[in-house]
Hints:
By secondary structure, the chain is an alpha/beta fold. The protein is 35% helix and 11% strand. The chain has helices at residues 8-18, 21-35, 49-53, 91-104, 115-118, 144-156, 168-172, 205-215, and strands spanning 40-41, 61-65, 122-126, 131-132, 163-167, 184-188. Strands 3-2-5-6 form a four-stranded parallel beta sheet. The protein has a two-stranded antiparallel sheet with strand order 1-4. Strand 5, helix 7 (168-172) and strand 6 (184-188) form a beta-alpha-beta unit. Helix 1 (8-18) packs across helix 6 (144-156). The mean pLDDT is 96.
Amino acid sequence: MTPEQLAPSWQAVLTSEFQKPYFHTLMQFLEQEEQQGKIILPAKDQRFNALKATPLEQVKVVILGQDPYPTAGHAHGLSFSVLPEVKPLPRSLNNIYKELKDDLGIDNKHTGYLQAWAEQGVLLLNTVLSVEQAQAGSHQKKGWETFTDAVIKAVNAQTHPVVFLLWGAHAQKKTALITHPHHLILQSAHPSPLSAKAGFFGSRPFSKINRFLTEQGRGDINWQL
C-alpha cells in the first residue's frame, strides 16, 4: 500500500505517516506474519478501503470499530461491514440493524455490505486495520492505532461539523482526539451481543445523526441499503 492509492485529500494529511518508523515496523510485522504462512485479513488491497471510499473532505460521520472481522471472507476494510454474499450477518451488525429499524423503520437485514454508507460520507474506520484469521485482536498494539489516530485527528481538524459515533469503551478512548466544539460526539454501549442491552438498544444514533447534519446544512444520510 502506498499513499498514492488514497484519495488526494487523505494523501495530503497521511503521506508523512507512511514515512515514519512505526509504520515501517508495522509493515515489516505484516510481511513476517505472511512469510510464516499466516492468513492476514482483510486482503492487502482492501486494508485502506475506508480511506478510498470516503475522501476526507466528504466525511460527515465517523463510525469507529476496533478490529476487522477475523472470519475468512467477511472483512473488506470497512468497519462493521461484510462482503455482499456473507450470511448469516455478524451479531454486532445484526444489532446495529435492529436499532436502525427501531430508530428509523429501515430494514437492511438483506445485506451486510455498507459501501453505500461510506460513499455518502460515513467513514467506517477500524482502529486496527488487519487481523490474523481466527485470532481476534491479534494485531492490536502493532502500530495501526497510531496511524488511525492520525486519521481521526485529520477529521477533527476539518472546519465542517462531523458526527463521531463511539460505541463501547475502546472507541470512547478516542474522545481526547476530538477537540473542536463544532463536532458532535455520540457515545453508547457497543452493539456486541455482550453489551447491546446495556445501553446500545434505544440509543437512536441514526436519527440523531441526521438531525444534526440537517441542522448544520450538510445533508442527511440515507441509511437504506
